[in-house]
Design goal:
The complex is a heterodimer of chains A (305) and B (181). By secondary structure, chain A is of the alpha/beta class. Chain A is built from 11 helices and 9 strands. The longest helix of chain A is centred in the last third of the chain and has 20 residues, at 281-300. Chain B contains 4 helices and 8 strands. The chains are: A alpha/beta (305), B alpha/beta (181). Chain A: Heterododecamer (2C3:3R2) of six catalytic PyrB chains organized as two trimers (C3), and six regulatory PyrI chains organized as three dimers (R2).
Amino acid sequence: MKRHLISAADLSRDEALLILDTAEELARVSERSIKKLPTLRGRTVVNLFFEDSTRTRISFEAAAKRLSADVINFSAKGSSVSKGESLKDTALTLEAMGADAVVIRHSASGAPHRLATWVHGSVVNAGDGTHEHPTQALLDAFSMRRRLGALDGRKITIVGDVLHSRVARSNVLLLHTLGAEVTLVAPPTLLPVSVDTWPCAVSYDLDAVLPKSDAVMMLRVQKERMNAAYFPSEREYSRRYGLDRDRFAKMPDDAIVMHPGPMNRGMEIAAEVADSPRSTIVEQVANGVTIRMAVLYLLLGGDTA
Amino acid sequence: MSASRAVLEGPDIHRALTRIAHEILERTKGADEVVLIGVPTRGVTLAHRLGERIEQFEGVKIPVGSIDITMYRDDLRRGPARPLGRTELPADGVDGKIVVLVDDVLYSGRTVRAALDALSEFGRPAAVQLAILVDRGHRELPIRADYVGKNLPTAKSEKVKVFLRETDGRDAVTLMKEDAR
């Protein structure tokens, strides 16, 4: 393993599989009565969150604690950041406190990359702007592999707001590395300009793609990032790109439905689809803790010198 | 170059395991409460072989499991993070049972120390015993085996390697002299 996890593209196929296999063994720990391992005792993991997040922060916190690491939560609100401290000074403060790993979420794409040049510990990207969210991609791949088996040649469809989605980018990169065939489906306005350089196919027609999909991942419509008119109305978006009951019926019988959360029920995904047995949405949360344990273990468990 | 020679061949391993199986039956008076737990990878294979033999001899089916000790090692920071092995305990657990830990080679004793720590997370066995195919000496902790296939005096510079049919295609224990490399 490399020292940091900044981008899903940093992972070779072997490294990605090592993380997934490690998570597979660690999943058994969650089934035990004592869900704690002594592995990272005496190590400090700092959760540095400049952007609101509940599930990702809690997920990293649970993962670090199950490995016996000490966890320090640092959120920008009510901290020295709101007094104008720069990212670099914050990083140096954490460094002085002896952080072995910094888990960072930041609204600026590239912040984790900069941070990695300032601290000695490992940096884990927990979402930077509209860039990447590699542990989300890993937990998605892990959830898919547990339901579908090996991902080679599997057809994965990612639907929705690709433009603002760090989840989509990380997933495309990782799934490509793992041998899956990814198709992005979105309105043209919600695709990044450079999407033709991504290792995936692009379609504007959800109904044509659904019958050929092994897994369909619905992305959240990120209203908070929508400062322009990307589609005429929510209703029209939902009609053309939402996964409702009729569209769900067009999917193969063993295909699964995924969503990184939080969901807009009734918008990109119908409630009854989200709650169906073929939906992995709740599993994804549990798998998130497991995959983050695997990542923290592989980054911090050995000697990185 | 390093020269390696076989110190145990297939039939020797077979006899050693047969004897250990009898000893377990004798020491535990019929192995009623015994659970065999192997340390991955080869310890698990050996645990299954012992279980089969005990069943052959006395007709009792012994629960067999595995316990991965990677997360409990004391030398994790001395190398890159290691891949994990499988932990699979029998459904009835280990509470009140006589757990026989099984591994291929006993050396520093640190693996066994880690296994004892790992085991304590799953319950409180009535007793824990240790079965080992090869004891090569050089203990660094106050640990000894209850059942030993072969005591093999070695130098610290030598390497002991265990091959088993299930994982390596043949049964053998070799001793490799690490002379002037």
